[in-house]
Amino acid sequence: MPTITEYPDRPYLGIKREITMTTFGLVGDRIGEMIGWLAQRGVPLVGAPFFRYEIIDMPHDRLLVQAGIPVASPVEPEGDYFADVLPAGRYATVLHHGHPDRLMSVTTDLLRWAADQGLKWDMTEESDGEHWGARTEHYQTDPREHPDMADWDTELQFRLA
Description:
The chain is of the alpha+beta class. It has one domain: Regulatory factor, effector binding domain (Multidrug-efflux Transporter 1 Regulator Bmrr, Chain A, Alpha-Beta Barrel). The chain is built from 3 helices and 10 strands, in the order E-E-H-H-E-E-E-E-H-E-E-E-E. Strands 1, 2, 3, 4, 5, 6, 7, 8, 9 and 10 form a 10-stranded antiparallel sheet that branches. A hairpin with a 2-residue loop joins strand 7 and strand 8.
């Protein structure tokens, strides 16, 4: 069952790519590398890695997506890494236990729930797709400890307007 949660600003180290549904690895495969980069610099992680969807254009199978690693305070990025902040605010959240390939139906349910509640998203419709302020999937499970994706926990956090 979805809930509404208030979050403060949350800094992170990220990487961004324009991808399709079949090229998610261009972003996702960089998470381990970013965690290693932070560990080499003694920067502790303060939450689960996540994907942040900036632009979603499903009719054209085009997504602008970030992979992010939460940190306690901003870090000085290098190369194609950047520092950013998930903005403070109210988020509709839901926890999914199971394979990530089921997240589309979980997302559909969350969007429907919010519409039924009369909630509005931090999102604008533009000619190139939906522009989201903060629409994220936080991967709570360490795949080294639980390689079976059916055992993973993922929390969706979508910022409300």
